[in-house]
Amino acid sequence: MRALLFDQPAADTSTTRVGEVATPEPGPGEVAIDVRAAGVNFIDVMARRGDAGYATGWPFVPGLEVAGTVRSLGAGVSGPAVGTPVAAFTATGGLADVAVVRGELVVEIPAGLSFEQAAVAPGTLTTAALLLGPTGRLREGDSVLVHSAAGGVGQALASLARLHGAGLLLGTVGGAGRAAAAEKAGYDAVVVRGDGIVDRVRELTDGRGVDLILDPQGTDWIETDLELVAAGGRIVLFGNAGGTPLASLPAAGRLFGGNAAIGGFSIRGYAAKAPWMVAEALSEVLQRLSRGELQVEPTVVDGLENAPEAQQALADGRGEGKYVVRL
């Protein structure tokens, strides 16, 4: 079968290619899927860069979310039946003709959804649902600030936060040219990260601060987050977009004094230790998509050959919204 391969770490597409690899077979408890569409995510970039903990070896097949049809079932798996349209969180290996995944992470696609729409759900939308639910514990009326608001997860968070009863929605972006995409996604105000962000957010929150801050920038903005979080608020770190070494977290005394909490998030961690939570969140967002409560407009590129450019757009900060590869 054909798969997208990273041959070795690189900052660009120079070591990325499409190649022939052995077609995987499902083991006990696993499901093989004929992939019809696969999401492109910033985690692909992190794996390609060689960030610790992402690529399991070289060459490496990226891709953490797929939609397609069930190809075969491993021992001990009773369904979904062969041929059923499904979406799944794969963690790795999704950008290929066939992906193998644990059965607990496979969910049937509701009628009426295309494979391209469904491919947005396992990684991007499910991440947003888990961030707002069990990790961020969003409460009715809470204010929310999301860094990197113009990206795929950032836009998904805006839509889902509204559905979950959020109050004021604030987004930050790395440059003024990305503000329009975040505003279109539904943020009440968008702030360019840099000098003046603290004063602007305090102005927007009448000096109170923000109840929930969702930050995919590693620890680069943790000091700013602490200045912006409201008393009793939560900060959730859910990525390391810049790839810079993570700094130590602030001393406990600062958290005590600010009545603030800092938490971390990894969808791969949930998939490994609590796969039922990933499946429940994936089922929720697929149902919301099918009912029209969530709208997704992914940028669809045809063929694995075009996946590297989509990944590079994310790496360069040019990508807005969500990319999906149609196989």
UniProtKB/TrEMBL annotation:
A Pfam family assignment: ADH_N
Gene3D superfamilies: Medium-chain alcohol dehydrogenases, catalytic domain, NAD(P)-binding Rossmann-like Domain
Keyword Amino-acid biosynthesis belongs to the record: no
Keywords: NADP, Oxidoreductase
UniProt domain Enoyl reductase (ER): residue ranges: 11-325
Keyword flag Calcium: no
Name of the protein this chain belongs to: Zinc-binding dehydrogenase
